Amino acid sequence: MENQKNSDVVVDRGEAKWSDLWLKEDYWAIWIGFFILLVSAFMIFAGGDIEKKMADYNAVIAAEKAKPFKTVELIQATGSMLNACQCMHMSYSKGWTTINEMERQLGYPVLIRSQGGSNGGGSSLTEQGAALLSAYRRLQEDVQAYSQAAFEKYFPCDHKLGGKNDANAISTDESAPGPG
């Protein structure tokens, strides 16, 4: 067997060079980690309010996670992908991409699609899609109830308009009753 050299193939012999980091497939995580560290350092040392930046970032992430459910909710309300997308200020193709990805991940269809034509098209929810949306709404209610109970646990003073506001009443008791 003759000895061939191929510059595209990198063999890991336990010794790596910096140039190998661009070629090896398993080093992609190192580069992502390095990028995250750089972004974090920039956020910390660039000044400004880090808590506000993190709150803004978390709000964007939460909105992106809820987008498929909001799209399904608006399709149910309007009967149309186009109208739902317009309500969300989202492109029609982005709306379909969102729903198609949701259906791919779930493994079942969420929408019944009706092609346009003289009678116009439309979309409605499948039984599984309606059940999914119902479960999502119940989850939202539970999260809201848990959040309210947790708030009352840690801030037990009366916060209603015109109520008594006793700053000394804030609980530091870890065993205070709460949700769950």
What features would you describe in this structure?
This protein has 180 residues and is mainly alpha-helical. It has a domain at 50-111 and 122-160: Arc Repressor Mutant, subunit A, CATH 1.10.10.10. Helix content is 54%, strand content 4%. The chain contains five helices and two strands, in the order ααααββα. A two-stranded antiparallel sheet has the order 1-2. A hairpin with a 7-residue loop joins strand 1 and strand 2. It is extended, with a radius of gyration of 26 Å. Mean pLDDT is 75; it is low at 165-171.
CATH class of the domain at 50-111 and 122-160: Mainly Alpha
- Rg of Cα set: 26 Å
Order of helices and strands: HHHHEEH
Please state the overall shape, judged from the principal axes of the Cα atoms: extended
Unreliable residue runs: 165-171
Strand order of the largest sheet: 1-2
Give the beta-strand count.
Answer: 2
Q: Quick one: biggest sheet?
A: 2 strands, antiparallel
**Separation of the first and last Cα atoms:** 69 Å
Strand content: under 5%
Mean pLDDT: 75
Q: What would the CATH topology of the domain at 50-111 and 122-160 be?
A: Arc Repressor Mutant, subunit A
Helix content: 40-55%
Query: What structural class is derived from the secondary structure elements?
Result: mainly alpha
Annotated CATH architecture of the domain at 50-111 and 122-160: Orthogonal Bundle
Number of helices: 5
Q: State the fourth-level CATH superfamily of the domain at 50-111 and 122-160.
A: Winged helix-like DNA-binding domain superfamily/Winged helix DNA-binding domain
